[in-house]
């Protein structure tokens, strides 16, 4: 996913010379194609995320569209006030890119697990929050956020993600992508919503549920803010339950965003939330291991849904 | 165990741990091994028996990515079983890539740079307030000194006269993508610390004699002490030295692992056993197309031209 982002950004930055990429001294190997092709639109700010973000704001306020790049929590939580005061409040065209959303860097330890970023970034007024689910969404989102005025947060996975969509013809920030429809004539029906690179598990879970006789409609919410209210409201009317899947704390993140809409529109549908249940992961292991530990594999999501229905 | 013996063991464990796990940062582990070995060989008042004692010295590896070096030093000092080291990075292990306080003997989890000196200052401050005699040691990376928070802590520590605080900068001149000088220049590093009100000692940080002297050096004032430890990234394994590739790459099966081990065996101190390859690995053959002794820095191929074309800022 990170390579897809870099490839897409190179194409866009060749067309738009106002695009700049600043890294906080991360992206060894990954950013090489970019800085070799576009040496004048690249900067390494060193291991200094607060300054990187402030510099990005300054450049943006002088007409540039600036992508900041780092991993885990470093481009977000580490420099939160610079994002709030210097970027978001000023409506600066800064596009904050995080590689390693969720448990991607599981073995590196808790410091490198980005599991509250969606909630925190979503709380900032005027900040668009984008979490592409696969390579196609990552490419589309990269292109789209260049044209979204103001500050945007884009949370990526890492490398080696599966391609879920063939293509998306009408990609739009704020519009969820339908992955599959529910089959007719089942007694129970659910809608599965996911955000970010856990789309692979959500897709598998949807298939498992369908095989077990539960009609399952599935959407990928590549945008958490602004959230696609239409899809949420119409699914609430049609289905017995809504299932949210996120590689993130359940407090304040994607499931909270969905539940806000349900409450606001007075929908009393059952909400089943798959996510990290308000704890830090002190466990060590790879992404798959940690997903399993926190109940986020396809099988675990499916059985959680069945146990509640 | 002498500090030289411990340093060798840290290097040998580091090679094995990153080799088995596919883990990063062997260059940093090799760079910092001597500093950690000297600290854990008599400088610091720590032991498994007193691991919870309020009077013990405190240690923070603020450059948490070299965690394997600390885990190795703790295991070799009896804080936990040496056999556990090979679980580094593995599913269900305690030994995360960055230092974890769930491991016996570790005072602070680190991994996000620029945190350790502030916390170390807090520990030292509390110690002075409570009239305790413990010392606090914080190892920082040179690249880590890019972080503004390091300098906030530096000012705090000198302002409050934290003479029980020692910072050690593992000054190997490299960070994650390039040399520091080509990333964000640190300028005259020792002078910066001095200007921030610290007692400054500059030494060869891979030399145990110089390290011991620097740790025992006393100043007749109430300032904190910083040791600018000039080190070599990848020290002890020639083909890794000063090559940024080894910030992330792990010694792969084949010549990379074999050459790393055989180089270490050439410098093995007497009386040390290698628990992984007791007899070494023989003389490895490096294939002709091996990616060795090449320049992997960003600046090798990043060649911006904007300055030549820029009219801005000219008189």
Distance between the termini of chain A: 34 Å
Query: What is the second-level CATH architecture of the largest domain in chain A?
Result: 3-Layer(aba) Sandwich
Proportion of beta-strand residues of chain B: 5-15%
Spatial strand arrangement across the major sheet of chain B = 1-2-3-5-4
Would you summarize the structure shown here?
Chain A has 309 residues and is α/β, with parallel strands linked by helices. In chain A, 36% of the residues lie in helices and 21% in strands.
3D architecture notes:
The complex is a heterodimer of chains A (309) and B (315). Chain A is of the alpha/beta class. Chain A has eleven helices and twelve strands. In chain A, the strands form two sheets. Chain A has a seven-stranded mixed β-sheet with strand order 2-1-3-4-6-5-10. Chain A has a five-stranded mixed β-sheet with strand order 7-9-8-11-12, with helices on both faces. Chain A is globular and about 60 Å long. Chain B is 36% helix and 9% strand. Chain B has eleven helices and five strands, in the order ααβααβαβααβαβααα. Chain B has a five-stranded parallel β-sheet, with helices on both faces. In chain B, helix 8 links the parallel strand 4 and strand 5 (225-230). Chain B is globular, with a radius of gyration of 20 Å. The model of chain B has no long low-confidence stretch (mean pLDDT 96). Classes of the chains: A alpha/beta (309), B alpha/beta (315). The interface between A and B is large, with 35 and 45 residues.
